[in-house]
Design goal:
By secondary structure, this protein is an alpha/beta fold. The chain has a single domain, classed as Rossmann fold (3-Layer(aba) Sandwich), CATH 3.40.50.1470. The longest helix is centred in the C-terminal third of the chain and has 21 residues. Helices cover 32% and strands 26% of the residues. It contains 6 helices and 7 strands; from the N terminus they run E-H-E-E-E-H-H-E-E-H-E-H-H. Strands 2-3-4-1-5-7-6 form a 7-stranded mixed β-sheet.
C-alpha cells in the first residue's frame, strides 16, 4: 500500500491558509480518484482506494503541523511498510514560488516543522515529499509563521487551481515507482 499524507492544521480557522496546502491537495486527490470521504482514524482522517491497481491510503493528520509524525503510527506498525518506497508527504513551502512545486525522493526538512516531525517519527529522511510553493514571503516580512498561517491571496489561489492537474499528475507518477 502507498500512503499519501497531506500536512496541515485541523480546524476551520486554518482551512484556507497557506500552511494547509497539503490538506488541499489530499482533498483534490480524493475528489479526482473518487475515493470515499475521509473518516476518523488514529491521529488522522483517512480514506483508501485503488489507483490503476495500486492500493492507496490518504491521510490528513489531526495532530497539528508540528506533530504530524504522530499520525504515521498506524503505517509504521505495518512491517511491510517502507517509507522510502511507500510514503509521499504533501507539504507547503514558502521558499518555493507560488504556482510551482518540487517532488523529491528524499532530503532534509528544510526547516519545515511538519517535515521535522515526520523525520523524527521515521528516524529517516528517505521518503518522498511534494513541496507546494506558497512563497515568496512579501518584501519586508520576516515572520514566516505569520505568513503561512494567513489565507492565500486571490492570485495565489488562482495559481494553485491552475497547478492542480500537474500536482495530481506528479502524485500519479510517483505511485507505481
Amino acid at each position: 500500500m502507498r500512503a499519501v499524507v497531506g500536512l496541515g492544521n485541523p480546524g476551520p480557522e486554518y482551512a484556507a491558509t497557506r500552511h494547509n496546502a497539503g490538506f488541499w491537495l489530499a482533498e483534490a486527490l480524493v475528489a479526482h480518484w473518487g475515493f470515499p470521504p475521509f473518516r476518523r482514524g488514529e491521529r488522522a482522517r483517512f480514506t483508501e482506494g485503488e489507483v490503476d491497481g495500486v492500493p492507496v491510503r490518504i491521510l490528513k493528520p489531526t495532530t497539528y503541523m508540528n506533530s504530524s509524525g504522530a499520525a504515521l503510527a498506524s503505517l509504521r506498525a505495518d512491517p511491510a511498510f517502507n517509507p522510502a518506497r511507500d510514503l509521499l508527504i504533501l507539504v507547503d513551502d514558502f521558499q518555493i514560488p507560488s504556482g510551482t512545486f518540487r517532488l523529491r525522493g528524499e532530503g532534509s526538512s528544510g526547516g519545515h516543522n511538519g517535515l521535522k516531525s515526520i523525520e523524527a517519527a521515521l528516524q529517516a529522511q528517505a521518503y518522498a515529499r511534494l513541496r507546494i510553493g506558497v512563497g515568496p514571503l512579501p518584501e519586508g516580512m520576516s515572520d514566516w509563521s505569520e505568513y503561512v498561517l494567513a489565507p492565500f491571496d486571490p492570485e495565489q489561489l488562482e495559481q494553485l487551481q491552475t497547478l492542480k492537474p500537474e500536482l495530481i499528475a506528479a502524485v500519479e507518477q510517483w505511485l507505481p515507482t
